[in-house]
Amino acid sequence: MTPIHDQPQTATRAVATHRFDLRVYYEDTDLAGIVYYANYLKFIERARSEWVRELGIDQTRMKAEGQVFAVRRVEADYLSPARYDDVLHVETVMLPGSGARLVMQQDVKRGDMVLFSAVVTIICMTSDGTVVRLPAAIRQAGR
Amino acid sequence: MTPIHDQPQTATRAVATHRFDLRVYYEDTDLAGIVYYANYLKFIERARSEWVRELGIDQTRMKAEGQVFAVRRVEADYLSPARYDDVLHVETVMLPGSGARLVMQQDVKRGDMVLFSAVVTIICMTSDGTVVRLPAAIRQAGR
Amino acid sequence: MTPIHDQPQTATRAVATHRFDLRVYYEDTDLAGIVYYANYLKFIERARSEWVRELGIDQTRMKAEGQVFAVRRVEADYLSPARYDDVLHVETVMLPGSGARLVMQQDVKRGDMVLFSAVVTIICMTSDGTVVRLPAAIRQAGR
Amino acid sequence: MTPIHDQPQTATRAVATHRFDLRVYYEDTDLAGIVYYANYLKFIERARSEWVRELGIDQTRMKAEGQVFAVRRVEADYLSPARYDDVLHVETVMLPGSGARLVMQQDVKRGDMVLFSAVVTIICMTSDGTVVRLPAAIRQAGR
Predict the structure, then answer these.
(1) Does the predicted interface ipTM exceed a cut of 0.90?
(2) Structural domains of chain B in order of their starting residue, each with its CATH number
């Protein structure tokens, strides 16, 4: 989870955890009375969008320039259900990636309790599907 | 519901009701155990997409040519709830519109029972928001 | 739109506009590059949930006691599209209803610009579908 | 992917692939013009629902009896994007699990091309969160 133990000098930056708060609404639940399993992916994407914005990246401009982020892989554990009206937050931490791949740990928590934990791999690609380097702001954030 | 009583010669075509079948899945429900109210709009849009396709209109090509359908107005009555696992169908009928506006009655039914009934007004617009004439196939379908 | 002109003594309360802020994320958009039309119903439901909470109503408890709010009718005008990354807010005002029906005007705005405007009728019903009186906190809010 | 190589006598049953067809609609896409990543989880859940129904399991009755299926883990690879109007199908195969865990491979394909491939672990739990044995029909299907 803290992949940079060997790099104490950059630890402060690299383990920086981004926090995003959200509320569970009716739209998020299903008839089991809990958050529908696909909707956690929406929650963590909202968090990624805010994290990316805070890095100074404008996804609308990126798209106008023909590049979008795309999810390549998700490994997700559903540990405990979130319910209607819950106040949750998403914690996002960058894991070691590469110039072409952004890997993030994203946990959805209610207070201290982890309800959902995912490792998400993101790439950047052009409209014809070619994988390109990640924006510099992201490559630098991971250092 | 059958707005063309005065035009018997075109009645057969104009009252043609398009039918689209669907099943209610977990994703469609909310914690009240019934279909979430916004999701009926998804159901009727699936039906419109199939209806438009059957008229020979390719929405992907339309979009590549810079035009999309846009919903301008929805009046919707929620009469009785649909539930998980229900087999539903959408009945779509064109109401009198104009060259610029397509007005449709769309009912979501379970067997003979109307659960949801909407009147939807559609326009066609370019990517800069200009309203343009509807595709000829639609204008002719309404005659 | 301001239905209480004849009741100046209660005007302050009755015209109280509830405001709910939100951001447009990827999940909200469709391939036309704008917010998918059903998702405005999600936005205004989030606003209603917060408004109801602020009136002191706990929907989870209501449900445990066998009552839920249900939408009976929506009249919605789509005036101008919202786009990815937009910061929007929902303005909610109660319109004159009755003990059994709650009618609300709900506008989705970007700054001063109204993008979507709906009149929504809500009822309160038991799990067997019987319509019951609205919670007292709501009936009183409308006076 | 075919985990039963050592059990040739049951191979026919165990490798039985369930197929579920679907169409991509506007609701499924995002502004990148492709299927939004969370929506593949909806697609594969529709397929699981149909597969479970074909095994004779009534999820509505299960829920009335206080049991629901819950997803415990998803490992998903996004290989190639699905687009508006695509005709897709989901192929579902049971992998070796246990009496308490159902593990399934679920691929979303366009023709022969795999666009999305997931391994999903399902459990059965009561409304208070206790994990219980899977329904017999599922345990037998996996043999």
Answers:
(1) no
(2) 8-141 (3.10.129.10)
